[in-house]
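Table S7 (text form). Paired inputs.
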Amino acid sequence: YDNAALVKRIEERLGEPLKDEARMDLSQLGFYHRHHIARLTDEEYLQVETEVGARLLQRAAQACGWEPGEVQGVLIGSSGPISTDYTERIARAAGIPESAIKVSVHKACDGSAGALHLALNPALGTQNPANHNLAEELLGKKVLVGGIEGLSRFIDASNDINALQFFGNGAG
């Protein structure tokens, strides 16, 4: 939905017009579209998000000039993955080898930035109780880092006007 269509969707959802003072101008922050999907079962959400994630990883590999089978590491940030093996499912669907390192980072909106920080910061390994240094382990490998959000499944039942305008789904 572009910003104008989003207002109409929210008004339909709430059953009343959105007051001018409640409208957020998110285009100032670079938000021009929000993506929402219909209410689905948990299994359907998992299927959709796995497909979206697989396409994300395949296109990211392609942008790097790699085949998915060459990828040696995947880090995916997400606020609320729908399964405990979320990253593994997405990587498998994308054709990434089982041997690739797969890490899920749950940090809300900055999950992909948090994943990148984790991959590039060897000093973080010294804070790990197991002394496992992910950045050193990934050094020199073909690694994809991204974020996938399926937030419409959380906010669809909300009456919070700000949340309905601000949050949506995406991958990048």
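Next pair, protein 2 of 2.
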Amino acid sequence: MSETKQTLVEQYRRDTIEGAAQRVIARRGLAGASMAAIAEEAGVAKGTLYLYFKDRDDLLDQAAGRIFDELLERLKGVLAGGRPLRESLRELVRTKLAFFDENQEFLRVYVALRLGGAEEARHHRRHRPRYARYVEMLTAYLAAAAARGERKAFDPARGALFFAEGTSAILQRRLEETGRPPEVDVEWIVDLLLNGLCPRRRS
């Protein structure tokens, strides 16, 4: 087997196992997600898992990384779409909320296990390369929006961090609650960011 074909096969197996881990954890929670259960879901021998992952914790982190890579690609697509600022921010929030709702059961387990409370989650995000790339992309987008005259002058890096941290906090809260329509949070976040807390004074 050529090196290229071997690499593709190994990546396919890794992707299959990570996808199986996501599904098993989403259905059974962490307690029911043994390596044997994940191997059965993936259709491979249990020993095969250890060819690609050190242990279940390593598999969990890799599976989560796969999810966050996909989210980053979706957000990159939104920012590259050429929409006006208000529309882009709304679509960014909508995309993030929809993605987290799609992967809610797995992410609820992952957040509880890896991120702990809100302070730990913030610290964890700030030291993750995917999060850093997202903030960089958002900073560049806000700087470009300023150059187009779509927003008032402010530090785009701080604006990006404010937006990213605020939406992440709402996402974490959504993992802890049920029944709140995502569009309510989309409009609330965008309105708060663009219009602030105080009502506009009539002239």
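Residues 22 and 106 are 6 Å apart (CA to CA).
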